[in-house]
């Protein structure tokens, strides 16, 4: 049985952070990432990009993750 490696865990955590942020935006109109790093700042764009890459990674490796 394959175990989740550190990269899997990093991407899963980033997806959870992204999901929580979208939940805050949807329910409270509060963007936590923009509040921490600034509206449309380079750092917030990096965080959003990493969350997007995480989603693609988990989508492409979901077969491996489903076996866990």
Features:
about 70 residues, single chain, mainly alpha, about 80% helix
Describe the structure.
The model has no long low-confidence stretch (mean pLDDT 90). The protein has 68 residues and is mostly helical. 78% of the residues lie in helices and 0% in strands. The longest helix has 23 residues. It has one domain. It is elongated, with a radius of gyration of 14 Å. The chain contains 4 helices and no strands.
| Domain unit count | 1
Q: Provide the succession of SSEs.
A: HHHH
Regions with pLDDT < 50 over 5+ consecutive residues? none
In whole angstroms, how far apart are the ends? 8 Å
Number of helices: 4
Q: How many β-strand runs?
A: 0
What share of residues are in beta strands?
under 5%
Using the CA coordinates, give the radius of gyration: 14 Å
- The secondary structure category is mainly alpha
Largest sheet: none
Molecular shape = elongated
Q: How much helix, percentage-wise, in residues? A: over 70%
Average predicted local confidence, pLDDT = 90
Q: What is this structure, in a nutshell?
A:
The protein is built from 4 helices and no strands. The protein is an all-alpha fold.
């Amino acid at each position: 049985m394959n175990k989740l490696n550190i990269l899997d865990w990093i991407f899963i955590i980033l997806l959870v952070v992204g999901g929580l942020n979208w939940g805050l935006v949807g329910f409270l109109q509060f963007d936590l990432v923009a509040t921490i790093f600034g509206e449309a700042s380079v750092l917030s764009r990096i965080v959003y990009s990493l969350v997007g890459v995480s989603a693609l990674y988990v989508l492409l490796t979901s077969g491996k993750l489903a076996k866990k």
